[in-house]
Here is the input.
Amino acid sequence: MTINTTAAGRPQAFTLPRLAHVAHVARRLGWQAGSALFPGRTARAFERVWFSLPPQKPAEAPAVLAQARQEWALVTGDGAPRRVRVYRWPGTGPTVLLAHGWGGRANQWRSAVPTLLAAGYRVVAFDALSHGLSDAGARGPGQSSLVEMSRSLLACAWHAGPIRAVIAHSLGAAATALAIREGLPVDAAVLIGAPADMARASARLAWQLGVTPDVLALTQRNSERWLGMPWSAFNVPDIGRCRPVPSTLVIHDRDDSEVDWQDGAAIAGAWPGASLLTTDGLGHRRILHDAATLAKAVGFLDEALGDGGLSARARGGPRAQDRGLHDAGPHGVLGMAR
Here is the structure.
């Protein structure tokens, strides 16, 4: 950090890093003061921050989306039905569902789709509620939740199933884990850059902002009322400990600056039979377009699904295609529309 000076040596201006630091300190002091003086109001403000999506710029659909059959699935059970945009590409093999991350959309799979199609798979992707071309979620535009992303995924699976495997990125991977907990019948999952524990992640953000633990706890209690489940349900490693999970490949880059590599390692260590593939130098997003990583994911699916679902039979359960998607609907939230 430096300060620019005039020829006479007098301070002229703070550098941008210094100004950014001052602004951060001021914001932190504001949150700390709010936590002490107005805990209820501050809890509501932090709740809005936590469930706010990053700004989404209008993006031209890549050619691969233009080639898809575009349909609507419905999420029901929480007010008026809401439409989820679904994209389908034909193939001769099992169907693979692609789940984007927080603030993402189906076009982030523009590299994965042709790779999967070349391998013979049918491919399905979607824009979660409040993302892409889908309707706004229950909290309105620009707001969503892990629960809402999971229900968007389940609605897509109900609409386009049977689904044999899921490839998911970032919070979409956590949403996939929650969908599996709720009964999504798949034989294989690839989780890329997955966060392990949303309660811990929210505590980290609260600390960074200066929100006190008491106000964080109030935020979580308030949000549990409309989420319909406790924050403890969002612990991805615990999901693998408490119920059967599909054959799983966890992929995580050591240089991921958004989700720690240790999160992926924790998931792989807790889910029975899961494998961990560690990459280097790809970060959180470029990993989705790395040809070698995509080839490893396809190779894993070939092995996991090539025998018709050996992993499911080894657990003593039926294959996903035998169970049928009627098992996947939690809380009456699923419907479909063509």
Q: What stands out?
A: Residues 1-14, 308-338 have pLDDT under 50 and may be disordered. The CA atoms of residues 71 and 86 lie 5 Å apart. Residues 62-305 form a domain with the Rossmann fold fold (CATH 3.40.50.1820).
